[in-house]
Every structure is written in structure tokens, then in C-alpha cells.
Design a protein that fits this description.
This protein is of the alpha+beta class. The chain has 6 helices and 9 strands, in the order ββαβααβαβαββββα. Helices cover 29% and strands 30% of the residues.
Length: 160
């Protein structure tokens, strides 16, 4: 079952990429008491993810925060080392990377995809969501191969 607007995020373990190394966090605790712009990509360093998705959130970070977003979080079914390296290479200090190495979060929110045809196995779909105090307020899931509704620009239009 796919998560929907009004649902509370499931409580699973994610791994935060930090300068000191991987740090396990529980999603229920992590999203509690703040407004988070969360975006998910099929994989770090993949073409659309690196050329459009992450750069859009980097570029629009200030505007998102001006509209009440406390934190911007990127996630993918990758390990924390890859997510940290991706943020170092193409991201910014305005983005927090939460690795979903085993795909537990993607599975729990019902937003997985099969990337086996590309040698990627089970991954998370491309989407964005606005989360307030652990509850989904906006959910923007892309059609396969698309990049429209999960962008930072689209999320900004929802906050206006």
C-alpha cells in the first residue's frame, strides 16, 4: 500500500551521512517536530538524479526554507558512504542525505521500483513529499521515466 497525504511516515532505520561517518536514525524520531522537504531518487550519481533532481533542491534550498521548510532531505536505496559522496560532489550543506541501504523505507512507504533491467535491483521511486511533524502533507510521485512533479520548483509552487 502506497503512503498517502495525511499518513504518518513509517518508523524504520535510515542512515544519515555525516562528516564523522554513518549515523543510524529512526525515521519517527528524525521527522518529529519539523517541516521537511523529502525527495527520493532511484540512485545517487545516476543521470537525472545528478543533473536535475539534487541540483534543483540545492539551488532552491533558500527559497524552500523561506517558505517554512526546516530541513531538506534526500534519500535513495544506496549506502551512507555513496549518499555522502554524492552530496559532497553535487549537493550542499543545505541537504541532509538519509541512506535507505536495504530499501526498508522505500518498501514501507510503498514506493519501490524494479531497476533490474538496468542492473540496479529494487530501488525507491522518484518522488518528493512535504512532511510536517512526521505526517505527509504533499506527495508527488513521478510516472516512470518522468521528472516533473518531484522537483524543487514544483514543491515551491505547493508552498506558495
Amino acid at each position: 500500500m502506497t503512503i498517502a497525504v495525511g499518513d504518518r511516515l513509517p518508523d524504520v532505520t535510515l542512515v544519515k551521512a555525516t562528516a564523522e561517518g554513518p549515523e543510524q536514525v529512526q525515521s519517527a524520531d528524525y521527522f518529529k517536530g519539523k517541516t521537511v522537504a523529502l525527495f527520493s531518487v532511484p540512485g545517487a550519481f545516476t543521470p537525472t538524479c545528478s543533473a536535475k533532481h539534487l541540483p534543483g533542491f540545492v539551488e532552491k534550498a533558500g527559497e524552500l526554507k523561506d517558505k517554512g521548510v526546516d530541513e531538506i532531505v534526500g534519500t535513495a536505496v544506496n549506502d551512507a558512504f555513496v549518499m555522502g559522496a554524492w552530496n559532497q560532489a553535487a549537493g550542499s550543506q543545505d541537504i541532509t542525505m538519509l541512506a535507505d541501504g536495504n530499501g526498508d523505507f522505500a518498501e514501507a512507504v510503498g514506493l519501490t521500483m524494479d531497476g533490474s533491467g538496468f542492473g540496479m535491483g529494487k530501488r525507491g521511486q522518484r518522488y518528493s513529499m512535504l512532511v510536517e511533524d512526521g505526517v505527509v502533507k504533499q506527495l508527488n510521485v513521478e510516472a516512470p521515466g518522468d521528472f516533473k512533479v518531484s522537483s524543487a520548483d514544483h514543491m515551491l509552487s505547493q508552498l506558495s
